[in-house]
């Protein structure tokens, strides 16, 4: 069960009874935690200088954070002496209680992962709902899942440093939907919340999974919908209006079916799970796996056509962006992994013949919680992948 | 005529007689100049601390730079006192002699622009050569042009801070071609040289011309070839292997003509100047302008088809990158400016209908020296557009 302390702090924030003094102190706490998150262990004197607080005020803040277990004394630095002449204590985030939560609020399920400050995943879970579930009920399902995960794992969320929430669909900066979700999570957890497209978060997670030095990645996800994300020059790309990575609505077939977006022949009408099942006259993704395993010619031909369409779209993107890795993921790829090699061959053929080094095309490494993992990664500010990326909204606005 | 001093320093560098001591001093000079370029005016003490030189060594260096006119005393800072107790002098680059040179070495002409340290263009020029001219002769033409510009403008190139050289065609990092050009310029001018694709430099210049806050720009140039460049999240994009922006080789028509790259139906086979002239059965770009002005139906239909193809390619790129501005430039657009509005309408129609704010599509603002201007801009390190961009190769390698 979530602890009494958690509920007290939660109620304090949501009930509206919280006073100005508490708000100011909470803002100071955030600055201290944020500094320790970015810089690692520091002495009180170093913290006081950097956040611009008096030693007395800072002592109150660090005392409260130590009492709550959000920070710990990790060392004493014999070089740096406190006012009294004794060695200065170094304070740091408690790796066991400074947590980061990633939430992927999809069309029909929510996935949650929680990492400690050392970036270890300490809890994860999933909960399903019907595809048409209203936002309020999706949020309630997410909160119930998070509470259950807390009970099962012993995680208290007391020192939650931030929540990253991935949502399906494009997330233009400042959209109403992202505002609702951000408000709900920041009221619930009194922590900074970063909301973005869930596939973009997945792209970030895949870029990190692809290796430390990978600075240019195209990621496309073939699932119920088709989305994607880009890491360019070592940074996750949101685009000017927050809707970069719309691979699903690039035209794959000008005489194709009408897409849910209103256009005709979008990649999503060719290479999404529903489009493929329709073309193969199959009911489920498991049926598709079985048909491919059995050498069903309709399934095989359809998947070849899908891979060609995906490869052409990715080739255009690769000509523009010259990535190092192209990652293809999603449910369709798990059911029909041959898509990756065939799309890769198309990309290879479409690149300029004398164009030099080629991108590597690979299947996604992470599973269904890629979005939740990427949401956590997006909260780790020191990641160079996120330099210049929009800041999380503060919880105290 | 270039001064005796210039030729002395030039010969000193190219003749191979330069000793180790001179090389070391030149490296120190570079570090001092680079510091002043980035930080503005500093005292000798501040410079000594930051470059890690003794006061005595630094005095020799600054004495030489002052004598050469590369730096000047701009002020005395009454707050900072030199060792003797008198006010410390602040040194800075001389805005009249700290120069940056941009060179655009195209298929059939070289353009050069020179800016002073305040980013004012103080000289520019162009020189033509035949399209098949070998590299050594192109370089000779460039050097002759630069010498003539020096005679005409009085610019001595004595305090050249860097040379940016744009080359036609993709420029994979470390290519032989870019190595030859970089070596030739750094030997000639004893200054750092940055070599990149000339169209990418033009994209940088257009992004800067598009306004200070424009952080996401797609630029495509329709000329003898088709190239492009990207600014993503405020930074110029080279791609993993230095070949980003290859809009010209995106397939526009799968059943189209064979391209010089070996593929079929590349945008370049549809929307480059030679392709358009061939389709219209015209000899020169001036003929095309005249035909459009006279309402020639073949010319009008061809340009409509070209604009549609360009618009579709840009729409795909915009779905992926979600830019703020899309800029279309090049000789073809100057002859047929209607391309911009029509391609813009195609982009508008191809974006996701409910996709929120739209990019602005506009014609390029700069003329034929966009590549040279962008090469200069690329040398101004403080530009946030170039954060993280590859460093210029030092002249003393």
Fold and architecture overview:
The structure is a homodimer of 397-residue chains. With 397 residues, the first copy, chain A, is an alpha/beta fold. Chain A folds into three domains: 4-93, Winged helix-like DNA-binding domain superfamily/Winged helix DNA-binding domain (Arc Repressor Mutant, subunit A), CATH 1.10.10; 98-201 and 371-386, Nucleotidyltransferase, domain 5, CATH 3.30.420; 211-364, Nucleotidyltransferase, domain 5 (2-Layer Sandwich), CATH 3.30.420. The first copy, chain A, has 14 helices and 13 strands. The first copy, chain A, has helices spanning 4-14, 20-39, 44-51, 55-68, 135-153, 176-189, 198-209, 268-271, 273-280, 285-293, 297-321, 331-335, 338-350, 370-379, and strands spanning 42-43, 71-81, 87-93, 98-105, 109-115, 121-128, 159-167, 193-197, 217-222, 226-232, 235-236, 325-329, 360-363. In chain A, the strands form three sheets. Chain A has a five-stranded mixed beta sheet, sandwiched between helices. Chain A has a five-stranded mixed beta sheet with strand order 11-10-9-12-13, sandwiched between helices. The longest helix of chain A is centred in the last third of the chain and has 25 residues, at 297-321. The first copy, chain A, starts with a helix and ends in an 18-residue tail after the last helix. Chains A, B: Pfam families: HTH_24, ROK. Chains A, B: This is Transcriptional regulator. Chains A, B: InterPro entries: ATPase_NBD, ROK, ROK_cs, WH-like_DNA-bd_sf, WH_DNA-bd_sf.
């Amino acid at each position: 069960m979530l602890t009494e302390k958690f509920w007290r702090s939660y109620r304090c924030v949501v009930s509206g009874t919280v006073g100005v003094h508490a708000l100011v102190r909470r803002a100071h706490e955030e600055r201290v935690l944020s500094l320790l998150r970015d810089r690692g262990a520091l002495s009180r004197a170093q913290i006081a200088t950097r956040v611009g607080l008096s030693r007395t005020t800072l002592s109150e803040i660090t005392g409260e954070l130590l009492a709550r277990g959000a920070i710990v004394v990790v060392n004493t630095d014999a070089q740096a002496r406190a006012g009294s002449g004794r060695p200065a204590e170094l304070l740091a985030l408690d790796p066991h209680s400074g947590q980061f939560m990633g939430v992927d609020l999809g069309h029909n399920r929510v996935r949650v992962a929680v990492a400690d400050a050392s970036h270890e995943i300490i809890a994860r879970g999933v909960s399903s709902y019907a595809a048409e579930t209203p936002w309020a009920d999706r949020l309630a399902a997410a909160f119930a899942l998070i509470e259950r995960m807390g009970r099962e794992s012993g995680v208290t969320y007391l020192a939650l440093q931030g929540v990253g929430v991935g949502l399906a669909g494009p997330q233009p900066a400042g959209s109403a939907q992202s505002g609702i979700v951000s408000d709900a999570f920041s009221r619930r957890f009194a922590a900074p919340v970063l909301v973005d497209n869930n596939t973009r978060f997945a792209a970030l997670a895949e870029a990190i999974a692809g290796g430390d030095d990978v600075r240019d990645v195209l990621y496309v996800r073939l699932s119920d919908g088709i989305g994607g994300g880009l890491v360019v020059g070592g940074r996750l790309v949101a685009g000017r209006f927050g809707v970069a990575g719309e691979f699903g609505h690039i035209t794959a077939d000008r005489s194709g079916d009408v897409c849910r977006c209103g256009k005709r022949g979008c990649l999503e009408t060719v290479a999404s799970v529903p489009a493929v099942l329709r073309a193969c006259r199959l009911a489920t993704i498991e049926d598709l796996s079985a048909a491919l395993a059995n050498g069903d010619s309709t399934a095989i031909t359809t998947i070849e056509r899908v891979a060609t369409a995906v490869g052409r779209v990715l080739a255009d993107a690769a000509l523009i962006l010259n990535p190092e890795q192209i990652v293809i993921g999603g449910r369709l790829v798990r059911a029909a992994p041959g898509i990756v090699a065939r799309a890769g061959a198309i990309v290879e053929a479409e690149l300029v013949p004398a164009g030099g080094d080629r991108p590597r095309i690979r299947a996604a490494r992470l599973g269904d919680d890629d979005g939740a993992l990427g949401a956590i990664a997006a909260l780790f500010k020191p990641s160079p992948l996120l330099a210049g990326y929009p800041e999380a909204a503060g919880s105290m606005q």
